[in-house]
Design goal:
Its cofactor is Mg(2+). Homodimer. This protein has a 6-stranded parallel β-sheet with strand order 3-4-2-1-5-6, with helices on both faces. Helix content is about 45%, strand content about 15%. It starts with 5 loop residues before the first strand and ends with a helix. Helix 1 (about 15-20) packs across helix 2, helix 2 (about 25-45) packs parallel to helix 3 (about 65-90) and helix 3 runs parallel beside helix 4. By secondary structure, the chain is α/β, with parallel strands linked by helices. The chain has helices spanning about 15-20, 25-45, 65-90, 105-115, 135-150, 160-165, 210-225, 240-250, and strands at about 5-10, 50-55, 90-95, 125-130, 175-180, 200. The structure holds farnesyl diphosphate (FPP).
């Protein structure tokens, strides 16, 4: 299989990483930013097209106030400290998620990062901040419904492509590979629409321990997967009867 164009990462396990070391959870998030930096640098050098990080979910506001403040401060510090360097490295930054309930200073920094790097042609770094897929889909539906109500849009012309074009990820390819660290096996409201045919990889180590070597191992695992996009297997080579039966059953299914 060809290399992934778009990898999306759920950076999980910062809190457990810190607790296991007798440190406050905030130390885990700070260590998590170091991992993020290393992976962004590596992906830029190796020529990946799109790299998306789930940095703060629309449900993370329910964490203790101090932790929410820490995560907002880390985002601000990351942009202030790393923006010039990312721009020099030709990284193009976009931020997905709801902006309306973010403070003016955070919104300003997000706009600054996007405007400065708009013309860059290297790695597309996508930061999901105050992001939730159900919220994103709700906003898209609301906008399409408003167009229908205003007579600008015929309901019959609403297609999957039009819905995609109304999501925060408009214009980006769907993720080929979604990695979640820390051993949890769920999507947690991340890219629900876009993940329709993504490959998933759940790695046991917590995010602060995730290295460029593990990232390369994840890509190697992806290369060995077979993606069918709802179709059937390209070649069914059966070595025994039970395998032949399972191939037939899988090929009969609607979903693959
Ligand atoms: C999940 O670990 C991680 C998060 C909720 C936040 C991830 C954010 C960062 C790494 C830093 C901020 C981002 C930027 C772009 C600078 P958890 O706290 O849920 O860990 P646990 O499951 O072990 O408690």
């Amino acid at each position: 299989m060809s290399d992934p164009r778009h990898i999306a990462i759920i950076m999980d396990g910062n809190g457990r990483w810190a607790t296991a070391r007798g440190l406050p959870r905030s130390a885990g998030h700070r260590a998590g930013v170091e991992s993020l930096r290393a992976i962004v640098h590596h992906a830029g050098v190796t020529g990946l097209e799109y790299l998306t990080f789930f940095a703060f979910s629309s449900e993370n506001w329910s964490r203790p106030d101090g932790e929410v403040r820490e995560l907002l401060a880390l985002l601000k510090m990351f942009i202030r400290r790393d923006l010039a360097d990312l721009h020099r490295k030709n990284v193009h930054i976009s931020v997905i998620g709801e902006r309306d309930n973010l403070s003016a200073d955070v919104r300003g920094l997000l706009v600054e990062a996007e405007s400065l790097t708009r013309g860059n042609t290297g790695l597309n770094l996508v930061i999901a901040f105050n992001y939730g897929a159900r919220d994103e889909i709700t906003r898209a539906v609301r906008s399409l419904a408003a167009d229908v109500a205003a007579g600008r849009l015929d309901p019959q012309s609403i297609s999957a492509d039009l819905i995609s074009a109304n999501l925060d990820t408009s214009g980006m390819p769907d993720p080929d590979l979604i990695i979640r660290t820390s051993g949890e096996m769920r999507l947690s409201n991340f890219l629900l629409w876009q993940a329709a045919y993504a490959e998933f990889l759940f790695v046991p180590c917590p995010w602060p321990d995730f290295t460029p070597e593990l990232f390369e191992e994840a890509i190697a695992t992806y290369r060995n997967r077979e993606r069918r996009f709802g179709g059937v297997e390209a070649r069914a080579s059966c070595h025994d009867k039970s395998q032949a039966l399972s191939v037939a059953a899988a090929s009969d299914g609607v979903a693959s």
